[in-house]
Amino acid sequence: MDSNEARRGLQAAGRYMLDNDLAWGNAGNISARLDADRYLITASGTRLGELGNEDFIECSFERTLAKDRKPSKETPMHRAIYQQRPEIVAVLHASPFYSTLVACADIQLSSELFVEDMYYLERVEHVNYLHPGSPALGEAVRAKARHANILFLDNHGVLVYDTSIQEALMGLQTLEMVCRMTITARSAGLDLRALPASIVTDFLENSGYRPRREWPI
Ligand SMILES: [Zn+2]
Predict the structure, then answer these.
(1) Alpha-carbon span 78 to 89, nearest angstrom
(2) Which residue blocks in 34-164 are alpha helix, DSSP H?
(3) 0.90 exceeded by the pTM?
């Protein structure tokens, strides 16, 4: 997509995230792919709910294409995903309440609860805690990027990426809902009823909800 379209899409996504409790304060950073080796990412110090036209930095895989402002310091993990997954168009990093609670606890999520859960949470991976923005975190994300479209960054937040900004938002919102449902059920002493694995597989392969994902690994 061209940079105007990417900027407008990311501004709308940032507002949506704030309005729907998918981000808070000045935490989080989001990006969109421009072409094979370039992407647009939020600048350092920006707030996702109020992204202005100057709050984005164009980067190539080799360098930052801006003179005055810096891209988010968490750029290495965005870059790692675009490099590992050529089909990925948008990367969202945030720390919504329930997802971050799960990232700070040893809680197993089910991908067998409801329609969007089956599709968006088919694969979820964890990345051990490493300091935000560190090259080590970028490399840890690189190692997991091909295994899933949702990564928990333990004791930090989540990273959700997909083939469009809308699909990445849907993945993030579904993740937050599953985390909230799981925690709420635990608090209330409810047992969630998981669908049998055979039905989940049949849903993914034959229901026509979405084309079957082709995982690189
Ligand atoms: Zn972070």
Answers:
(1) 11
(2) 75-84, 97-103, 115-120, 135-144
(3) yes
Report the C-alpha gap between 31 and 136 in whole angstroms: 20
Distance 173 CA to ligand 1 centre (A): 17
Residues of the chain with pLDDT under 50: none
CA angle at residue 95 from 38 to 123, to 5 degrees?
70
Q: How far is the CA of 110 from the centre of ligand 1 (A)?
A: 24
153 Cα–ligand 1 center, Å? 8
Distance 107 CA to ligand 1 centre (A): 20
- Give residue 81 CA to ligand 1 midpoint distance, Å: 15
CA distance 216 to 5: 28
CA of 166 to the centre of ligand 1 (A): 21
Kindly report, residue by residue over 179-216, the tens digit of the pLDDT.
999 999 999 999 999 999 999 999 999 999 999 999 99
